[in-house]
């Protein structure tokens, strides 16, 4: 994460970050600092890792994004993996993310 403060500015203080089991640091995180400090350290295992949305669906305070993760692990293994993100927006900030993804491909890129 290049600019953690900018990222934190879009998250609600009581954000819930629900990440699929099997994804690096998968589980449910509650609260801004718990989410940033508990989930995102997995990025240190990658030289490059990003998400790119392909399709967006909006309904009121909810946004669904279908897309792909792209990455290169520290071991030089490339990965492309599908994801679905279900976002809840409250007062202009992210209140919740529920994520599901093809975790096997990411685990293989990390040699797990």
Give a written overview of the molecule.
The chain is an alpha+beta fold and 112 residues long. Helices cover 19% and strands 54% of the residues. The chain has three helices and six strands, in the order αββαββββα. It has a six-stranded mixed sheet. The longest helix is centred in the N-terminal third of the chain and has 8 residues, at 32-39. The chain is globular, with a radius of gyration of 14 Å.
Features:
6 strands, about 110 residues, six-stranded mixed β-sheet, about 20% helix, alpha+beta
Number of helices: 3
β-strand amount? over 45%
Helix/strand order, N-terminal first = HEEHEEEEH
Strand order of the largest sheet: 2-1-6-5-4-3
User: What is the tally of beta strands?
Assistant: 6
* CA distance, first residue to last residue: 23 Å
- Low-pLDDT stretches are none
Structural class: alpha+beta
Q: Mean pLDDT, nearest integer?
A: 93
**Main sheet properties:** 6 strands, mixed
**Apparent shape:** globular
Radius of gyration, in Å, reads 14 Å
Proportion in helices:
10-25%
